[in-house]
Design goal:
Layout: E1 3-12, E2 19-24, E3 27-32, H1 39-49, E4 55-57, E5 64-73, E6 75-80, E7 86-94, E8 102-107, E9 119-120
Antiparallel strand pairs: 1-5, 1-7, 2-3, 2-6, 4-5, 6-9, 7-8
């Protein structure tokens, strides 16, 4: 699914050394989790990595990244680590109004496996 605007709400328990990645239009923005980081710190770190092509809206939920762009974009999420526990709920305004507007799934990929699945909004719309 391609979006004009998307809100990505993260949850789970970040662990030091994990890599939490938000993917926008097939480009991954990865935050390396530090000691004592929670989801709020991961979200703040990811927001700082996003390029100026995306507008980050203020959001009252510190666990959510609300982003938009003038052209449509895809959204994905993944966590890489020894025993990852990360989840993303992706909601937003699809570029095609006949498409479903939300998805939610867990992304767990242990041990640095190169074939780590990534939660991606489908590109069928």
């Amino acid at each position: 699914m391609l979006f004009q605007q998307a809100a990505v709400t993260l949850s789970g328990t970040p662990a030091e050394g994990e890599m939490w990645t938000l993917t926008l239009d097939d480009i991954g923005y990865t935050y390396p989790v530090q000691l004592n980081d929670g989801v709020d710190e991961v979200v703040t770190g990811l927001k700082l990595l996003l390029p100026a092509a995306y507008t980050i809206q203020a959001d009252p939920d510190p666990a959510r990244i609300s982003v938009s762009r003038s052209t449509r974009f895809s959204v994905g999420f993944s966590v890489l680590g020894a025993a990852p526990d990360g989840e993303a709920a992706i909601e937003g305004t699809p570029s095609n109004p006949t498409c479903r507007s939300s998805t939610s799934a867990r992304s767990r990929c242990a041990g640095g496996h190169p074939g780590c699945p990534e939660l991606m909004s489908g590109r069928s719309c």
